[in-house]
Amino acid sequence: MTRFDLDDDSVVVIVGSGAGGGTLANELTQKGLKVVLLEAGKQQSTAAFVNDEWASFSQLAWLDKRTTSGSWQVAKDFPNLPAWVCKTVGGTTTHWAGASLRFQEHEFRARSTYGDVQGANLLDWPLTLAEMEPFYARAESKMGVTRTNGIPGLPGNNNFKVMYAGAQKLGYKECHTGRIAINSRPRDGRPSCLQLGFCFQGCKSGAKWSTLYTEIPKAEATGRLDLRPESHVLSIEHNGAGKITGVVYADAGGAHQRQKARVVAVAGNSIETPRLLLNSASSTFPDGLANSSGMVGRHYMRHMTGSVYAIFEKPVHMYRGTTMAGIVMDEARFEPSRGFAGGYEMETISLGLPFFAAFLKPGAWGADFTHFMDNYTQIAGMWLVGEDMPRDTNRVTLNADVKDQYGLPVANVHYDDHPNDIAMRGHAFAQGERLYRAVGATKTMRTPPYPSTHNLGTCRMSDDPKLGVVNKHGQTHDIANLFISDGSQFTTSAAENPTMTIVTLAIRQSQYIAEAISKQEV
Amino acid sequence: MPRTPSESTMTRGTMLQGTGVLMGTLAASSVLASLAPSRTWALPLHALSQAEGETILQFGRVLYPHKALPTAVYALLVKDLDAEAVRDAGVAALLREGSASLDAASGGKFVSASSAKRLAAVKHIEGTPYFSKVRSTCITSLYNNEMAFAHFGYQGPSWPKGGYLHRGFDDLTWLPKPPASASPPAAG
Ligand SMILES: Cc1cc2nc3c(=O)[nH]c(=O)nc-3n(C[C@H](O)[C@H](O)[C@H](O)COP(=O)(O)OP(=O)(O)OC[C@H]3O[C@@H](n4cnc5c(N)ncnc54)[C@H](O)[C@@H]3O)c2cc1C
Ligand code: SF4
Q1: Low-confidence residues of chain A, pLDDT below 50?
Q2: CA triplet A294, A297, A300: central angle to 5 degrees?
Q3: Predicted pLDDT at B9
Q4: Which of A44, A115, A468, B147 has its C-alpha lying 20 to 30 A from A204's C-alpha?
Q5: Within an 8 Å CB–CB cutoff, is residue B127 touching chain A?
Q6: Helices A419-437, A158-170: crossing angle, 10 deg rounding
Q7: What confidence tens digit (pLDDT) does each residue in A392-422 have?
Q8: Cβ neighbours, 10 Å, residue B28
């Protein structure tokens, strides 16, 4: 196992080993750079994963305290669990479902396309789809995305069959088993999907891409990765010239360690990333690192979400097989005549009995609720996910009244749905219900948003240092050797699930970092 | 792990005030009869009294009324709350006072009130900390155990059985089969 010295100031330190951090670590070590990858969580394995929803949740999820505010329903239903994300080596790519879609061309130009939506702070990305395409292609190949690179789609399960039949009745044209980072054929040393139905609990077969058993071991094989699990970064430090010098982290025993660095890249997911920058405030940077614009923590996005579950007269057994088994893409287009800007995807979802009870309708009781539980085997389900509006008031801030186990202020996550989000959710719920009723649903349930699985935008990307935290390479405008490498960079959220775009940005960023280091620019 | 209240020995912690044992019998026809070590079950209580245990059990039935779900599953709610009350005196007090409030709201004994009166009593205390505690515990106690899995038809861990690839992931036949372009065949 490679170990670099705490005083080695030639290393790149990456905070967080999920989609962004794990990918960046692999890309940089392949290019010959030395990387210290600091991960707050423990290291698990496909063997250690469990086919048990609550047990898996306590094994992998981020359970450190957080608080919420705002009018979003999550604040009411899950006041201390604003987000469903992981704290483990591999980050949330252990729990994720694998849906991997490119953004659409116009989504990189949200401000130009949607116009000035009141109460939103839309911007165009400083990047275009054309610039992203070569890197998207590399991400698809790396992740083994079905329906790309000649990889066949996955076979549809029962839940998909219901979605497909309903989609035909509604005249939808684009419905299939999706583009998904789950092996439909053995590939890259990993087997094909066994249709276990526990994608959200860590894939025990390893068919699903996760940095835990793809990017990270590949990086380790170069001999240039020093992975340190149970290493929780508390602050990022700088010198008198305002240049980053390293990080301080708490090790497994709670002792503080100071790791020097040439470059620091933060990929803690969009709640912890801004929290770390804000908790690193100093006399030089009293408002937190890289925050001269005041934008750190603002424009928190979580996607418009919701689910529809429907009861049928005959069996479905939705829990068998891949969780996101298929997709309807027709509503993802830009079509303002529907009464909102942006679009949404409809993707199958299934929950095991324990999570179904917990998430179907939080707080509900009585006969309407038990009717759904009683018909558990005859239910089909879909998740609705669409572009939400960035708002400077939707925001991750430090909650000075609540401290974590290290005595640091926790993150407060504030979110108010924009009228556009509400209009889109209403449309999506109605379409989901129509789809299921068209094939015989006897009852449907509009399930409110789960804690945020997609967390975006809190260090947004813009060419203008007054409007954004990072440039088009994820480099902070204020500090040349400080990078953001996760979904915090997103300028807007687009309709698609975000992870493949996070991976794409990390691949692209790795080139820029390697060049900047070789040219002595950082 | 099957969480079946078994016919265990009825030892009670000497320093604890529990005074109750909840007992019942699974119907021979129940799918659960084969899961339980015995059809009869007994749940010794360690912090709650028998009356409190019975009140909470009936409260669970009003909150989540499943006609065919055996009492043995609802007893898990009492078991979990009793265990919490052993660890936390505040919870013990909450459950004690809360159960009394249900009696008061039903103008006598909650457990022997008519079903209409029970529902009214529960609605009366909706939103109280006691209500929230019992309701939220129901979600895990009632639906996260093997008896509930069997009852509701959820097949639980699939890894030990090789997943559903050869066990019905696509066995639905009451709708047309999607074309291969939308849903290609599995790897051969
Ligand atoms: C149930 C579920 C299903 C999902 N399905 C999909 C899907 O189908 N498609 C899709 O595109 N996306 C999906 N997602 C979202 C996807 O998982 C995330 O977008 C992605 O993992 C985010 O990558 P990241 O690198 O930003 O953060 P993460 O993957 O969350 O990794 C961040 C890591 O940083 C660590 N960390 C944080 N703070 C610190 C610190 N101070 N010090 C050290 N380490 C720290 C965390 O412990 C964590 O391991 C899903 C998510 C969930 C929960
Ligand atoms: S369904 Fe496929 S991807 Fe999901 S957990 Fe199972 S083997 Fe892994």
Answers
A1: none
A2: 125
A3: 33
A4: B147
A5: no
A6: 100
A7: 999 999 999 999 999 999 999 999 999 999 9
A8: 7
Query: Residue length, chain B?
Result: 188
Q: What is the rounded CA–CA span in Å between residue A156 and residue A164?
A: 9
CA distance A158 to A163: 9
CB contact under 8 Å between B143 and A356, yes or no, is yes
Distance between terminal CA atoms of chain B? 34
Counting ligands in written order, the one closest to the CA of A345 is 1
Residue type, A283: S
- Measured distance CA(A276)–CA(A288) in Å, rounded: 9
H/E run at residue B85:
helix B71-87
DSSP secondary structure, A443-461, as one string: EEEEEPPPSBS--B-TT-B
Helix-, strand-, coil-residue percentages of chain A, each rounded to 5: 30, 20, 50
Token look-up 């048990």 returns A52
pLDDT along chain B (188 residues), means of 10: 38 51 84 75 93 97 96 96 97 97 96 97 97 98 96 97 97 98 93
Provide ipTM, 2 decimals: 0.93
Tokens of B5: 């209240």
* Alpha carbon distance B4, B25 (integer Å): 12
Q: How far apart are CA A222 and CA A86, in angstroms?
A: 26
Atom index in ligand 2 nearest the CA of residue A198 equals 5
Nearest-ligand number for the alpha carbon of A190: 2
Interface check B112 vs A, CB under 8 A:
no
pTM for this prediction: 0.96
**DSSP assignment of A248-277:** EEE-TTS-EEEEE-SEEEE-SHHHHHHHHH
- From the candidates A327, A348, A374, A378, which should be mutated to test the interface with B, based on the most B CB atoms within 10 A? A374
Joined together, the tokens standing for residue A418 give 């924009």
pLDDT digits (tens, 9 = 90+) for A119-166: 999 999 999 999 999 999 999 999 999 999 999 999 999 999 999 999
Separation CA B123–CA B116 (nearest Å): 11
Quick check: A377 and B153 in contact, CB under 8 A? yes
CA dist A329 and A497 (Å) reads: 12
Indicate left, alpha or beta for A160 from its phi (over 0: left) and psi (-120 to 50: alpha).
alpha
Most distant CA pair in chain A: distance in Å? 70
Strand order in the sheet with A263-266: A225-228, A35-38, A12-15, A263-266, A482-484
User: A5-23 burial, b if ≥16 CB within 10 A, otherwise e?
Assistant: eeebeebbbbbbbbbbbbb
Contact residues, chain B, for A175 at CB < 8 Å = 182
Do the chains contact at A374 and B157, CB–CB below 8 Å? no
